[in-house]
Amino acid sequence: xxxxxxxxxxxxxxxxxxxxxxxxxxxxxxxxxxxxxxxxxxxxxxxxxxx
Length: 51
What we know:
51 residues; 2 helices; 0% strand; flat
């Protein structure tokens, strides 16, 4: 079962890269931007619910 999940995960990752992929520099820039956004939100995974 674990092998099936791993293969499905790899397939999904491959599909995403194929559809939304780009140059390595673009990918790294996008990851850096998301890292900044995460840091600005307090480095918390769970945020309080906004009213």
